[in-house]
Amino acid sequence: MKRNRLQTFILLLPWLLTFAVFWLYPLLYSLYLSFTKYSTLANTAQFVGLKNYSTILTDHTFWDALRNTLIFTFGTVPVTTAFALLLAVILHTQVKRFTGFFRAAYFMPSVTSLVVIALIFTNLYAKDGYINLLLGMVGIPHPDRGWLLEPSTALLSVMAMDVWISTGYYMVLFLAGLQTIPKDLYEAARLSGATAWQQFWRITLPLLRPMMLFVVVINTIKSF
């Protein structure tokens, strides 16, 4: 028994060391620094207790940032999840040709450099960008200074970009979940006269709940 425990510990040792050095130590050190006045250039830390926490609770900038973060998270996670699930179901059930191409095309934004995406959307959202140009052609009102310079549209613009970036990644996860559902269930449902919507509601959605929970959790962490 002791030998088995020793072997188990030895096998876990690389992971434990990695966890301690790169996760546990930074976490504890960050907690310690939160109680100090730290000078980056001088590399000195003066203990101030709860002063940092009391200061941040009365800082309007902090509350504005927290409000924007909550709006961003609760605004993007449901939309991204819905779009990803819709695309996954369509590719899994409707698209019979060039499925690999469509999967790669939708997944591409997730692996594209964020710098490149930011430059593209900065140009799209500019006052003389393509979005304002197209809206102006059809007579739809649009921000004169650009979408990122107006307080009423800046956050929504960033949220739209995030949805576009993330949807393909979570679509692939939903596709993996869909491929684990036995086809016999759908065949039995069709023989029983179930419609496509009933099959989705009674079979697809319940069996995708573990994957959906995983998607919502990791997307919420990423958004925060």
The residue-averaged pLDDT reads: 89
N→C terminal distance: 44 Å
Give helix % range.
Answer: over 70%
Radius of gyration computed on alpha carbons: 24 Å
Give a quick account of the main beta sheet: strands, pairing sense, barrel closure.
2 strands, antiparallel
Total E-strand runs: 2
Overall spatial form: flat
- Ranges where pLDDT stays below 50 over 5 or more residues in a row are none
Task: Classify the beta-strand content into a percent band.
Answer: under 5%
* SS-based class: mainly alpha
Enumerate how many helices there are, as a single number.
10
Strand order of the biggest β-sheet: 1-2
Number of domains: 2
Q: What series of H and E elements makes up the topology?
A: HEEHHHHHHHHH
CATH architecture of the largest domain: Orthogonal Bundle
- What's the CATH topology name of the largest domain? MetI-like fold
What would a concise description of this structure say?
By secondary structure, this protein is mainly alpha-helical.
Give structural notes.
The protein is flat, with a radius of gyration of 24 Å. The mean pLDDT is 89. 76% of the residues lie in helices and 4% in strands. It is mainly alpha-helical and 224 residues long. It has a two-stranded antiparallel ribbon with strand order 1-2. The protein is built from ten helices and two strands; from the N terminus they run H-E-E-H-H-H-H-H-H-H-H-H. It has two domains: 27-58, no CATH class; 60-223, MetI-like fold, CATH 1.10.3720. The chain starts with a helix and ends with a helix.
